[in-house]
Amino acid sequence: MRILGVETSFDDTGVAIYDSKLGLLVNEIRNQNQIHNKYGGVVPELAFREYIYQVAPLIKYVITTKNISLSSIDGIAYTAGPGLSGSLLVGAAISCSLAYACKLPVIPVNHMEGHLLSPMIGNSSIKFPFIGLLVSGKNTQLIHAYKIGHYKILGHTLDDAVGEVFDKIAQALHLGYPGGSALSKFAKKGRLGNFIFPKPMKYNLNFNFSFSGLKTFTLNLIHKNINNIQALHDIACEFEYTIFDILQHKAYQALKMTGYKRLVVSGGVSANLKFINLLKERLDFYNIKLYTPNINFCTDNAAMIAYVGMIYLQSGKLVQNTDIFIDPKWSIVNIKK
Ligand code: KG4
User: Fold this and answer.
1) Which of 55, 69, 148, 189 would disulfide-bridge 233, Cβ 3.0–4.6 Å?
2) The whole model's pTM is what?
3) pLDDT recorded at residue 65
4) From the CB of 269, is ligand 1 less than 6 Å away?
């Protein structure tokens, strides 16, 4: 079985083809960073417009340059939510039109389920149930994953997502957008212990997070120390460590509560090796296995959409006719089973 996956939830255009026997055949991504960089964040109106120029040519590129015949495709999976409505609509409209023309089934895929299952691409050893920690530019969620399509959100951020805070701090340090990776590099020259940071909600007796106060605290420190480059490195280093310490603590509490021995961490921030090493160190001690995506599948991509689409097409669930379905607020707990 071969699935064409289309990802257009926010500002990256992804097209991929996943083959149930051969694995991932192609995975292409085009970002819009140059367009949004000067605004320090994504401008929805510009994102929608750019998608219109990017999606169809990228599908054509993937099909033709990789010599994959459209007639070998068994279904088209697209991101139906959550995301920006205009962005989702472009991908959904193109996917459904192509499916109609080729008489193929379409599978609307939940973007968060895509992220959550992305570590399974090329790794068949990951089994349900597990605890999932989704840390991306728009979401921070701790998830109890029972089986495909069956999830419970144990906790989530009450304000900013982790990736979003990284981007805001990076912006204040003029490190570009999106700035998570650049900020982490900048933090490498910093030393821990020179500033004392608050750890909001770390010890609350629930699984929710709050990062907005920590963001403001960090921004204020940056402004006070703007002419002291070593202090700025130290602040970045302490900020990064504080966030990761809170995340690992809550993830471990969820594992302890459920007794599960598997943690899946995914989303853009899972590309951060310092975070993954910190987690690994702690989890190894408790004999808990940590699963993360291949570096190419941490941030938004279509491989995860094609992969999840394949699972649903194989099971016959979530498949629909070519009516266009999107839900910008589609929660992972509301996937039709
Ligand atoms: O998963 P993703 O593409 O976004 C959503 O689907 O929401 O993740 C993008 C986010 C950005 O905020 C980016 O700054 C962050 O992931 N990110 C990182 C790193 N690489 C990407 N944050 C921290 N450290 C990194 N190495």
Assistant:
1) 189
2) 0.94
3) 87
4) yes
